[in-house]
Structures are given as structure tokens and as C-alpha cells.
Amino acid sequence: MPEDSPLESLRVLDLSLDVSGAFCARLFAASGADVIAIEAPGGSPLRSRDAWDYLAAGKKSLTLDLTSEDGRDLLRALMEETEVIVETFPAGHLESIGLGFEELRRLKRRIVLVSLPPDEGASAEARWQAGLEAFLAALASAMAGDANDNPQHIEISISESAAVSAALTQNLSPTANASAGVPDLPGLDDEGGPTPAPGEHTESILSGELGATAAQLADLRQRRVV
Amino acid sequence: MYRTPLGHIRAVELASGVAVAYAARLLGDLGAEVIRVGSGRAESQVADANYNKYGCSLEPRDAESRELLSRLLARADVVLYEASGTPSPDELTTADKGLIVVTLSGSETASNAPAVGASTAAQVILALWRRRQSGTGSQLAIDVGAGAMPSARPRAIGEDGRVLAARADGSLVPVLPPHFRMSENPTSVRLPPPVPGEHDDYVLRGLLDLSETTIADLQRRGIIASAS
Q: Which residues, numbered 88 to 117 in chain A, qualify as contacts with chain B under a Cβ-Cβ cut-off of 8 Å?
């Protein structure tokens, strides 16, 4: 992680259930931001992927049951302490649980919401590319955020991103063999960092950021909210 | 009022390959003023890598054209080009301590150009952020040989979703509009892909304050393209 990263004080919440968003958040972590991956109490579905160790490197893990009212309240409180949120839910899902962009707008002025709606037919390459492009648009918006009064909502379509890549490369010679596993990005990557166990940072985040007491934490655990 | 993320930034692209061109276009999508200098290799002239830019026909080959280029760079925040071209990064940084100099080296292939272009643009934004804190620019050397995304699968290029960008001469260029939508400052095709030299007047007279006589002289000697 770069020592002098300008992103040191930037917090990113990673709600991703897809490689595209998880990669976007991974790039924030590699660039020095404080990235918190939010997983269901049973762990993220991405944990079963080969690329998980890469995708989660350098992130913290918080478990939270977003199907419960308490879990959503905790997420809302955490959003207030956050500059960037990355999500890959179907369009409209965050609104349906009361945490859509209009709600965020009321919570906070300086925030960037990045949405990468799922696209079942997308190739792996298209997901990684869309995640990379989401990262750069969010990075630019977060940088401008200091000077802005309004939050920003960035939406990226994975299939449109793939169409652009195809148009750009139509006149180039094809590559002999595509890489497998994780992307190989010149200059943007780092050695990674430890991959968190599910919920490894739950206590430190809830008590450190949200001021939860030991009794409250025990109660949340007992009710399986975290 | 939302400030366009890169609205205060001017980037100069020394036209070469697709990755450099796409990186520059992405900066343009986010609001930067991008000036594409020269015409670049044929494959880099693809419309989708080149909208949201001004075009200047200066080809930085000889001492005089390089002097004009360094004057342009003194008014720029970022310059992007391939290391195999000229001038060298050292020559460029002496002009301006705050300049962010991005050089790409290696060979680009179909599967890595979009990834290299987008990661280059992201690194430029990180460098701009660092510069805001430190006050100094930086040099980024990017190896195009890397930059592959896992398991490529060829895709058909659809015509759907294209918009027609109108050039000054009335011709229409179909392009895929920026694929990230931003709530506060919608991205759009602000400028059609330029023909080299389309904005020579804007760049040379507007930015560098060259006189009409000087510009006509540069045209006559082939240092820039003739007026169309």
C-alpha cells in the first residue's frame, strides 16, 4: 500500500456480490483507501471463487444481515461515515430496503454511490473491465467531492462496457493467450494484503466507528444480525 | 452546484496507440479538456477512443515543433504518450514541475488495450490527487505488456446504443456514448472525434497566442496541417 496515498482518509463500503464491484473496491484498497467488505453472516458468495483471495486482499470484513431491520440500521449508520459505496444489487434493490441514492442524499453531502447492476450473460473479462472503469469514475468523483455539495451516483452497465472494449480493439491483433485468474494491471496493483476472515473486523468497526457497547455487540451476535 | 470531476484539468495526448487514446478519452468523459496532438497509428483513430477531445495537427518531430509542444505542455496538467516516441520524459518535466507525465511502453494487443487505457486513466487521477496535496507532478511509466483481464471471450460489436456525433463539417460519426452515468454531471459526447488539425486554431492561437502570420507560416512549412 502506498505510504503517501491521498486515499488514506477515504472510507469505502463494499456491498458487492459480483466480481465487478468487488474488483472496483479492491482497487480502492490497493490505492490506500480504508475498504470495508460487508458480508452476510454466512460469508460472501464470492468466497467460493478462485479469485476471492485477490478480491478481498487489503479489505476489512464486517458481517451484517441486511435482511433484518437492525442490520439495515447499522449499515445506514456506517454509510454516514463513508465516502464511497460500491454495490452490485439488481437495480432498485437498495431503494427497496430504504437505502437508495435519494436516501443517501439526505444522510450525507459528500458521498459517491457506485452501482454495477448484475448482468448474467457478461464474460469474466467484461466484469473486471467494468469494475476498473467504475473505480476511475468513482475516484474522480471522490476527489472532486471535497469541493462539492452534492453526492454523486455512478451507474455502469457491464454489457455497455464490453461493447466499448470490443469497438476499441476491432483493429488490433488478438492476444495469443488470455491470462487466467486475476487481472494483471500495470502500476495499479500492489502485493495485496491479508484476506479477512468473515466478520474479522466486525467488533472493531461497530465499536470503533459506531460506538457500540460490548452488550450491544453480544445482543447483535445472539440475534445473528452480525 | 456539482463541480465536474476533472473540469479544471487540461491533458495533452501525443497520439500513438489505442490504449493512450482511450485513457485520454476517459479523462475527457470526466470533464478534462483533452488535446490530441498528431494523428497516431491508424488503429488508434477509432472513433470510440477519440471523442471528447480537441485535435491539433502538430507532429512533434523537429526542434521547432517541440518548442511549440513544450509551450502547450506549460499550459497542461497531464501529458500521455508512448515511450518509443519523442520527446523523452526528461525533456518534458523540465518545462513544468507540476506536470504529470505518463509514458506507456510495450506492445498493445486486442485484449489489453481497454484495460491498460482505463488503468492509465485511473493512475492519472491518483497522481492528480497526490499533486493537490504535494504540489508536485509525477512520472508514471506504464508497461503495456501487462494489462490483461482474465479469460477473454470475443464479443460481436453491436450497432445498438450508438449515438451520432456531428463534426463541424456536418458529417456524423457513430460512437458508443460514455458507459458510466453520473447523477450530478451527466457524461456525454461533448466533442466528436477530431480530424487532426480540426482545432489547430483553438490550440495555437487560443492557447499559445500565435499570430495568424505565424500559423500560416507553420502551415506553409508543413509543421502543422494546412487549413481545411
A: 101
Nearest-10 Cα torsion for A219, A221, A224, A226: 120
CB contact under 8 A, A188 and B48: no
Please give, rounded to a whole number of angstroms, the shortest distance from the CA of B225 to a CA of chain A: 26
pLDDT tens for residues B98-140? 899 999 988 777 778 899 999 999 999 999 999 988 888 888 8
Do B224 and B205 contact (CB within 8 A), yes or no?
no
Q: Do the Cβ atoms of A136 and B121 come within 8 Å?
A: yes
pTM above 0.80, yes or no: yes
pLDDT in tens, A65-74: 999 999 999 9
**Inter-chain CB proximity A140 and B30 less than 8 Å:** yes
Please give the Cα distance from A217 to A203 (Å, whole number): 7
Q: Which residues, listed in sequence order, are joined to residue B141 by a DSSP beta bridge? A: B103
- Rounded CA separation B203/B34 (Å): 11
Complex-level ipTM: 0.90
Nearest residue in chain B measured CA to CA from A140: B5
